[in-house]
Amino acid sequence: MARDAIVSAAVTDDLRAVIADAGIVENTDLIARILATGVGLGLDGASRLDLKITTAALTEMRAAFRHFAPYAGVPKVTIFGSARTRPDDPVYLAAARVAEALAGSGWLVVTGAGPGIMQAAAEGAGSERSLGVSIRLPFEERPNAVIAENARNVAMKYFFTRKLMLVKESHGFVCVPGGFGTLDELFELLTLQQTGKAEPTPIVLLDKPGGTFWRGLERFVHEQLAGSGLISADDFDRLLLTDSVDEAAAAVTGFWRNYDSLRWIGDRLVLRLKATPTDAEVDALNDQFASLLESGGIERTGPLRAEADDEARATLPRLVLRLNPVHVGSLYRLIRAINALPSAPQGPARAA
After folding, report:
1. How far apart (Å, rounded) are the C-alpha atoms in residues 87 and 91?
2. Domain spanning 72-254: which CATH class is it, in words?
3. Nearest CA to 245 among 176, 320, 192?
4. The model's pTM
5. 32-71 burial code (b ≥16 CB/10 A, e <16)
6. Which residues pair with 175 in a beta bridge?
7. Confidence at residue 1, expressed as pLDDT on a 0 to 100 scale
8. What is the predicted pLDDT for the residue at 171?
9. How, if at all, do strands 203-206 and 239-242 pair?
């Protein structure tokens, strides 16, 4: 520790000089931490393999951030599914149709850029409304033709960096039947939502007409996971299981009908809305969700002082509450209730 501190102090000025010479003027503290972490890896004597993993991951993340940056203000939905699904499979058609519906509502469709369901979704959305995050694999090396048409793809070596981007950038998710990869992506989404590590987002499990794939998973979750006390009985309720393309698309867009975003300020949770709820509606929310609160009640308010840096949302009405951290995974129920308020905007909705 002493050696680290001495060397760190000695190179601090050099790191700052490098940042200044590069012309970087914003977020210099975070850039300095990234550089200092690299120096720290050298001090730790990290193996060449560890350094290669770190370098590749950081390089991929930079490429992905640049890939998505031009579309920062556009709502995105990620569609997960199997690379093995054939074009004549009804699930393929369902994925294409839900992508087409969401693209028609102004959304960008994000996929893993491969064949199967990924190609179906890209075909449905069209090349102008599709973005890809592909993985370099021996049997899946190139993005599908739709994504490749406009070169709107970024290729990744690691699944964990690819998954980060597929999840981080999206305001909604549609999963269609798939194998290990699809289930891995679904359960990561559920884990992030359950633990509060990610903001609530709509998650839809879409099957072919009359399909039972997701119903089988639902039975397993209720009988084995909830039945054994490994998850809460209502954890799976945050999902919509459907074989209706229209219902799937409406669930994604409808999640953002009134709810805009959230922010933690100390122990207070601030929910930003699109429409101001009435006194009676706030009272009803307090009655319905009293069990989720640590103390006090749900209160209507304007922007808090700590939100002064978020000018884009300064005019939005707020609900403020002290949420019991144990119930952070139940936020989706409160958001659904907010979207169902009579004061909520009607008609098509999209993420902020």
Report:
1. 9
2. alpha beta
3. 176
4. 0.89
5. beebeebbeeeeeeeeeeeeeeeeebeebbeebeebbeee
6. 80, 205
7. 44
8. 95
9. parallel
What integer pLDDT is reported at residue 314 of this predicted model? 87
Judge whether 282 and 319 are in contact, CB under 8 Å.
Answer: yes
Rounded CA-CA distance 240/205 in Å is 6
Side chain identity at residue 334, one-letter code: L
In whole angstroms, give the CA distance from residue 125 to residue 98: 9
Q: Where are the domains of the chain?
A: 2-69, 72-254, 259-339
- Are 106 and 350 a contacting pair, CB within 8 Å? yes
With 0-12 CB in 10 A as exposed, 13-18 as middle and 19+ as buried, what is 102? buried
The residues, any chain, with a CB within 8 Å of residue 58's CB and separated by 6 or more, are 34
Residue 186's nearest CA partner among 309, 85, 82 is 82
Going by their DSSP bridges, the two strands 108-111 and 318-323 should be labelled as unpaired
**Which amino acid does the sequence have at 309?**
D
Contacts of 337 (CB under 8 A, 6+ apart): 285, 288, 289
Contact predicate 185/163, CB 8 Å: yes
Task: Give me the pLDDT at residue 352, please.
Answer: 62
Tokens 């633990």 -> residue: 195
Determine which helix (DSSP H) or strand (DSSP E) holds 134, and give its type and residue range: strand 130-135
Tokens of 314: 């300064």
Element (H, E) at 265: strand 259-265
Strand order through the sheet with 172-175: 153-156, 130-135, 108-111, 76-80, 172-175, 203-206, 239-242
Q: What are the 10-residue block averages of pLDDT along the chain, 352 residues in total?
A: 52 87 93 90 94 96 95 95 96 98 97 93 94 80 63 88 94 97 96 90 97 96 95 90 97 96 93 96 96 95 86 90 89 94 81 64
Contact at 8 Å (CB) between 335 and 298?
A: no
